[in-house]
Amino acid sequence: MITVNPDGKIMVRRCLVTLRPFRLFVLGIGFFSLCFLMTSLGGQFSARRPGDSPFTVRTEVMGGPESRGVLRKMSDLLELMVKRMDTLARLENSSELHRAAGDRHFPVDRLPSGAGLMERIQAIAQNVSDIAVKVDQILRHSLLLHSKVSEGRRDQCEAPSDPKFPDCSGKVEWMRARWTSDPCYAFFGVDGTECSFLIYLSEVEWFCPPLPWRNQTATQRARKPLPKVQAVFRSNLSHLLELMGSGKESLIFMKKRTKRLTAQWALAAQRLAQKLGGVRRDQKQILVHIGFLTEESGDVFSPRVLKGGPLGEMVQWADILAALYVLGHGLRITVSLKELQSNLGVPPGRGNCPLTMPLPFDLIYTDYHGLQQMKQHMGLSFKKYRCRIRVIDTFGTEPAYNHEEYATLHGYRTNWGYWNLNPKQFMTMFPHTPDNSFMGFVSEELNETEKRLIKGGKASNMAVVYGKEASIWKGKEKFLSILNKYMEIHGTVYYESQRPPEVPAFVKNHGLLPQPEFQQLLRKAKLFIGFGFPYEGPAPLEAIANGCVFLQSRFSPPHSSLNHEFFRGKPTSREVFSQHPYAEKFIGKPHVWTVNYNNSEELEAAIKAIMRTQVDPYLPYEYTCEGMLERVHAYIQHQDFCAAPGPGPPGARALESPFILAPNATHLKWARNASLAPGAWPPAHSLRAWLAAAGRACTDACLDHGLICEPSFFPFLNSQDAFQTLQVPCDGTESEMNHLYPAFAQPGQECFLQKEPLLFSCAGSSTKYRRLCPCRDFRKGQVALCQDCL
Questions:
Q1: For residue range 194-205, what is the model confidence (pLDDT) as tens digits?
Q2: Could you tell me which residue, 655 or 184, shows the higher pLDDT?
């Protein structure tokens, strides 16, 4: 104790002056003590479950009510320290008042004595000492209890030999050697003991059976599904613009596009709502992760938005976001890895553990970059939830490249394939491969008044070149000189200070134009010219929609991954016969002319014919806002890749054949009296099956008959019955993994069935085989949907 003497006032005053730093000192001691407690109990605290408070201790490790009582007492002590520090703060304030009063002395009894203040300081110090003692006691008690529990359960913590869990023992061995390789294991409670291994492998992962002595109510309690809410069409997109965020030039471009098209989206929603009538649409919770815009993937697009870089991907993503939002679904949008991890519930660590919670999203739309990021950070949850993923894939992924084992064995493996997804989960910009789903984008739709104004304001001799980067113009001097004899040529090539040397002087270059100004240029022009690159972009459709004729080059030989650097490494064997195959096949003349640019006579003849031709603005229905809404609605409503597989194993025979031979004996049809496959989409009655000519792909064989190949119908045809009904003479039938099966080999009169459902493919051909091809009809202007698909 300190004896009070006449100098007590001086001591009190000194204490008050030094009170602020002392307060920080005491606060530091208190915080350090708490941190020491947490880190000392390391394993126990790291063993918390998702949803627990950060300071919740697992009672099974700590030892029940006694330990919890000690912790409560320690918490009370810390709270008392805080209250006393507040008292000291008030003392500090009173000292400042004392100094401010000057000669006006306050009564001495209003100030605490020096002895009382020192007693409080000593009490706080003693409290800190008590905390240290309690921590030591808890640690000793915890270690003793843990050793007893381990001895009591040692016989219950051996890897069981359960035939239902054949991988359990191997996974335990792996955990023994590698559990420290990723901090996520400690996050889920793994501490190096056999019990912690088995608890993790049975409750967090699913390789081992549940331990009988564990409390199963917590682990079996599944999150209750949220009540289903009906989706309602939206016409106001202001909230979507907020969800899209800002800070990147790419996002700014996408938001401007969405805002500009708001009125068209609203009108399209109104029309589709009338078409669907009272169809119930459940609202889906959807995560949209645009992987190519993340910093981790390099985000090469954002810096090039203002420099003439490719905008096709951003056009498509902007329209996907708008379609999902207008359809009334719940959206979460991420463009960074950190946001992705937070929304998925990724545990801390290196991505080897499952998610900390059930996936809160019904669907995830992403791209190949995002797909890779999810696989790296979702652990086993990626395999569990990958059926919910939709991959926006510009050029498509064919089944032969998608199946990892098959691609590796047969030379189809690339940097972008081998994901073992259902091929329909890949969604393309154009409907060039029916094996994938056609997502598309939209072009601005003109009303009748706008169409008349455009048609009357066209300049008959004005041409605009498709190519914003100067490199596209390189080597095109001869072509441009021929065109210049007939037309005034305009360009929109990006440049900073000096005119690009690749652009001839007779070309009127406007520089890079904002989208509205570019649209105005197209509305005046007669001709829109492609130089062979970029492939399959949105600009030609925009030009045709604004009343231009699109002139493009025919490729001979066709471009593919075998002979062209651009396609090398892409997961497709598709041969591209022109710059824009969709425009050539699905639109054609008079709106689209495809000629050999190396033949001057053919080129000049085409230019003269185009100048004499009058065309109206034209936009395919599937590229209108209503067409895209219709398509995306149908996908969300009917596509379910998480459901169990349909028809049985290859070769399985039904009690009664569902097929009948068409009257002209050329193809199979679904019998009217046959029971429809439950849940099949497209509906099975739209099936038409043809035996393609040797060397012909099913994609082309169906188009030959005015139909579309439908890969979801392959399982119905993958049987001996289908060949017999079609009167194909099979001397033998075998099942193998081959992306061309089911097929008939003519030399040996042998029929082959498909062994691997993921390899059913409309693409691919061989002169050795006549492929059995499933075809269907389609809605006018909407090749993605059959007549009864909506």
A1: 999 999 999 999
A2: 184
For residue 641, how many C-alpha atoms fall within 13 Å in the half-sphere facing its CB? 26
Specify the range with the lowest mean pLDDT, choosing from 444-448, 568-572, 641-645. 641-645
| 3-state secondary structure string across 213-245 | CCCHHHHHCCCCCCCCCECCCCCCCHHHHHHCC
Q: Is residue 354 part of a domain?
A: yes
**Cα 47 to Cα 62: distance, rounded to the nearest angstrom:** 11
Report the range of poorest mean pLDDT among 287-296, 646-655, 713-722.
646-655
Identify whether residues 609 and 733 lie together within a single domain: no
Per-residue pLDDT at 689: 96
pLDDT in tens, 8-20: 434 434 433 344 4
Tell me the H-state helices in 102-182: 114-153, 168-178
- CATH number of the domain residue 552 falls in: 3.40.50.2000
> For residue 20, is it within any domain?
no
Q: Is residue 97 part of a domain?
A: no
Q: What's the pLDDT at 268?
A: 98
- What does the pLDDT average to over 774-783? 96
* Pair 531, 327: CB distance under 8 Å: no
User: CA 395, CA 572: separation in Å to the nearest integer?
Assistant: 8
**Domain span at 737:** 659-776
Interatomic CA distance for residues 140 and 40, integer angstroms = 11
Residues 361 and 504 in one domain: no
- If asked whether residues 465 and 583 sit together in one domain, one would say yes
Can you say whether residue 706 is alpha, beta or left, with left for phi > 0 and alpha for psi between -120 and 50 degrees? left
Q: Provide the terminal-to-terminal Cα distance of the chain, rounded to the nearest Å.
A: 89
Q: Which of 280-289, 595-604, 671-680 has the lowest mean pLDDT?
A: 671-680
Q: Where are the beta strands (DSSP E) in 424-567?
A: 426-428, 437-438, 462-466, 488-491, 508-509, 527-530, 549-559
141 touches 67 (CB < 8 A):
yes
Helix (H, G, I), strand (E, B) or coil at 264: helix
In contact, 230 and 282? CB cutoff 8 Å:
yes
- Cα–Cα distance, 351 to 655 (Å, whole number): 49
Mean pLDDT of 666-670: 92
Helix/strand number for the chain, H first, E second: 29, 21
| Among 573, 752, 739, 536, CA closest to 651 | 752
Distance in angstroms (rounded) separating the CA atoms of residues 606 and 490 = 19
* Distance between CA atoms of residues 741 and 769, nearest Å: 9
pLDDT in tens, 12-66: 344 333 444 444 444 444 444 444 444 334 433 333 333 333 333 333 333 343 4
**330 and 351, same domain (yes or no):** yes
CB atoms within 10 A of CB 718: 26
Which tokens sit at 5?
């003497």
pLDDT of residue 329: 98
Going 244 to 246 to 250 to 255, the CA torsion angle's sign is positive
Residue 60 lies in a domain: no
* Statement to judge: residues 417 and 294 lie in one domain: yes
- With a cut of 60, say whether residue 719 has pLDDT above it: yes
421 and 276 within one domain = yes
**Last residue within a domain, chosen from 398, 415, 438:** 438
- To the question of pTM greater than 0.85 for the whole model, the response is no
CA distance 675 to 524: 56
Given a contact cutoff of 8 angstroms between Cβ atoms, the answer to whether 644 and 677 are in contact is: no
The pLDDT score that the predictor gives to residue 301 is: 80
458 and 423 fall within a common domain: no
Would you state the structure tokens that stand for residue 98, as one six-digit string? 């004392």
**DSSP state, 285?**
E
pLDDT of residue 213: 85
Give the number of domains in the chain: 4
Q: Are 254 and 392 members of one domain?
A: yes
